[in-house]
Specification:
The chain is of the alpha/beta class and 362 residues long. The chain has eleven helices and twelve strands. Helix content is 30%, strand content 13%.
Length: 362
């Protein structure tokens, strides 16, 4: 059902069909004087579903991304960021990239076992694994399910390098494991922080941590000796681009050592969801925002091409790049995102049926 109505604590205002759906449902006024969405609740409950995966490590060969391997413990994300480029992944399981993406969350219940199994294979060679490349490994469900915690315990035990991207404060729970990994140069954390504006964050990223809470996370990670950087992601034309310098100043003061940014991307079903959000929350700026987006995407709403999809192109994109570099340089922040973590300490776990055998160091 496609309902254009804000939901309490949710980013998407509707449930548009995914691009693989063969049927469409439209809500229409039948003339009886009852609003089409009158029976729709103001809030939508979160539903957790187990997902039975056969493998856990995803391989990547994109030249735009600084890692080759990733793990996503969850499909869908309750943070509800309306701009999330991972929303279209729900279309692959017959669900909507809209409200379904943030209310029907799949968790990989066998993630820890699968990771140990893959690391135990004789042919496996250690390379940094990224947690949170698609959806946040520290979204609310993690507090109870502890899947990310379990994965970190495996990485700690096997001395395997792991990087993390998150906007969740629950990462503070795992400071013991992260500090342990950091001592051997086995981890790095990137906190996503696109805005310092609490009111904008409330509708843009409804269930993510507040900007102040994320700054506190940066500070605590840095004090614990965990290398921490910040992704200003996404930079949204008109709405957040003016904050670049102030965000970098705030994260530098909190202890971040490196920074990066990603321009707003609107792949597949994300574009209509974002336009809908604009019309609901900032209607006076909607046309201006989209004209800027199209100006840096060669007249389109999205650019899928390697090399330009993350930063955009044209005069506006170049100006953002220059401002970001200058601000980072002034504050002493690195913009190098090469993930050169330690792979030489890896200890291969014993495989199935190998109980009692000594662990073999790679």
């Amino acid at each position: 059902m496609d309902i254009h109505k804000p939901r309490k604590g949710r980013g998407a205002g509707s449930s548009p069909a995914g691009r693989f759906d063969t049927t469409r449902t439209e809500v229409a006024d039948d003339g009886w004087g009852i609003a089409p969405d009158a029976d729709s609740p103001d809030s939508v409950a979160t539903e957790l579903r187990p997902e039975h995966a056969r493998t856990i490590i995803t391989r990547n060969d994109s030249p735009d991304i600084a890692f080759e391997q990733s793990i996503n413990p969850y499909r869908g994300c309750e943070h509800g960021c309306v701009y999330c480029y991972a929303r279209p992944s729900h279309a692959y399981v017959g669900l909507s990239p809209g409200l379904d993406f943030e209310t029907r969350i799949f968790y990989k219940q066998d993630a820890v076992r699968l990771l140990e199994s893959e690391l135990a294979k004789p042919a496996y060679r250690p390379r940094t694994i990224m947690l949170g490349a698609n959806t946040d490994p520290y979204q609310p469900a993690e507090k109870r399910l502890r899947i990310t915690r379990g994965l970190l315990e495996v990485f700690s035990r096997t001395r395997h390098p792991v990087a993390i991207v998150t906007k969740g404060v629950l990462i503070e729970r795992d400071l013991d494991l992260l500090a342990d990994l950091a001592r051997d140069h086995l981890t790095r954390v990137m906190v996503s922080l696109p805005t310092l504006d609490n009111e904008l964050k409330r509708t843009l990223e409804p269930r993510a941590a507040s900007p102040a809470a994320r700054l506190r996370v940066i500070e605590r990670l840095a004090k614990a000796g965990v290398p921490v950087g910040v992704l200003v992601a996404p930079v949204i034309p008109v709405l957040t681009d003016h904050e670049i310098e102030s965000v970098l100043e705030a994260v530098a003061a909190a202890g971040a050592s490196r920074v990066g940014y990603v321009m707003l991307r609107l792949p597949y079903e994300v574009a209509p969801l974002f336009r809908e959000w604009l019309q609901t929350h900032v209607p006076d700026a909607a046309a201006h925002v989209m004209s800027r987006v199209q100006a840096m995407r060669a007249g389109r709403e999205n650019d899928p091409c390697f090399g330009t999809r993350m930063k955009g192109q044209g005069v506006y994109a170049d100006l953002i790049a220059q401002r970001f570099r200058q601000a980072a340089r002034r504050l002493g922040l690195s913009t190098d995102w090469t993930l050169e973590l330690n792979t030489g300490s890896f200890v291969r776990p014993a495989g199935p049926g190998s109980a009692g055998q000594l662990l073999l160091q790679w």
